[in-house]
Amino acid sequence: MNNQSENALTDLVISRIKSENPRNQEILTKLVKHLHAFIKDVEPSEAEWFQAVDFLTRTGQKCDDKRQEFILFSDVLGVSMLVDAINHRSKSAITETTVKGPFHAAAQRYEAGENIARGSEAERGEATVVHGRVLAPDGNPVANATLDVWQSDDIGYYDVQDVNQPSMNLRGIFTTNAKGEFWFRTIKPAAYPVPTDGPVGELLRASGRHAMRPAHIHFWIKADGYHDIITHLFVEGDEYLESDAVFGVKDSLIIPFVKNSTPDQAAQWKVTAPFYEAHYDFTLAQKSK
Ligand code: BEZ
Ligand code: FE
Question: Is residue 65 part of a domain?
Answer without folding.
Answer: no
